[in-house]
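Z., the sequence and structure:
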Amino acid sequence: MQNPDANNTVKYCEYVDEVECRMWQVFEIVREHLGRQADRIKRYYNVGVKPKTFAVNDLVLYYYPRKYTGRSPKWSRVYSGICRLKKNINDAVYIIRKIPNSSTLVVNVDKLKLYYGEVPSCWKKGHQTGVGKWACRHVADSETCCRSVGGRDRRCNCT
């Protein structure tokens, strides 16, 4: 807006409306520019990212690193248990279960890795499960059942 002369009277309401209109126009331009910049950054980031997708009921390993004092982390196991995917909330978040009757965990896809080994006996169909581990009559000597109470040596009712 021009500088007011002594002859002209200043109309404050018009001036405020004009400044507000210009600010909204600049705001829209900046917002469009930031949106294009975010898309460009996303495209360059996604070049090096390999997407991970899992199906429901897949067996996965859960990344759960623990630090112990006085121990080197080099030989420690960072993946815990063989878990089953119960549900996927979205592309990045999944619900897993460590053993059939345990509570569920909500985890990020970055903490999961597909399990390629044999299916544990507790996840096989027709196997009744409880909590913990002990030897069962129907499980081979090298395997363990999912049922246990406080580490006591008992037989389960799975047979």
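Helices lie at 12-46. The two ends are 89 Å apart (CA to CA).

Let me know what you think.
H.
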